[in-house]
UniProtKB/TrEMBL annotation:
Keyword Membrane (UniProt): yes
Keywords: Membrane, Transmembrane, Transmembrane helix
Keyword Membrane in annotation: yes
Protein's name according to its UniProt entry: Transmembrane protein
Transmembrane feature ranges: 12-31, 43-62, 82-100, 112-133
Length: 147
């Protein structure tokens, strides 16, 4: 995979996570129950774009790291593993659960408990992906400087 495609996939993934997160906060603060249901449904639909984007970014990163060593590569790899597990074990199941509850207008304690966990896990993933973006850009600048 080309470095540009890897960067685009990672940026798309990070952007979608940020969009999902901010949309959730916004609609919870200022929206209606119908608005909450719409956002939660759209997030589930957006997973069809988010999951492949993050998978492509992960595959591209693994391919480019194959012949490299160093603390930055190790840190990026560790962060992606954490973000992937966080997404698979917390964020995707939470999105599905919350969309179902919101569509039934069932905004009980379980909804808000899972919503809180989802927001925290989403913030963690945004931070991890931001750090990877920062390190990836630094690595790209270093490669250009070596030429």
């Amino acid at each position: 995979m080309s470095p540009k495609l890897h960067a685009a996939a990672g940026t798309l993934g990070m952007g979608l996570i940020a969009l999902f997160w901010t949309s959730t906060v916004w609609v919870e603060l200022f929206g209606t129950p119908q608005g909450i249901a719409t956002v939660k449904t759209n997030i589930v639909q957006g997973l069809w774009l988010l999951v492949p984007a993050l998978a492509a970014a992960g595959i591209g990163g693994a391919q480019s790291a194959r012949n490299r060593r160093g603390p930055i590569i190790q840190a990026k790899t560790r962060r992606m593993r954490i973000a992937g597990l966080n997404g698979l074990l917390i964020l995707v199941p939470s999105a599905l659960f919350l969309a179902g509850k919101a569509q039934m207008a069932d905004f009980d304690g379980a909804f808000y408990a899972v919503q809180t966990v989802e927001l925290l896990a989403g913030a963690v993933n945004m931070r991890l992906l931001w750090l990877n973006l920062r390190d990836g850009r630094a690595m790209a600048r270093a490669r250009v400087a070596q030429r």
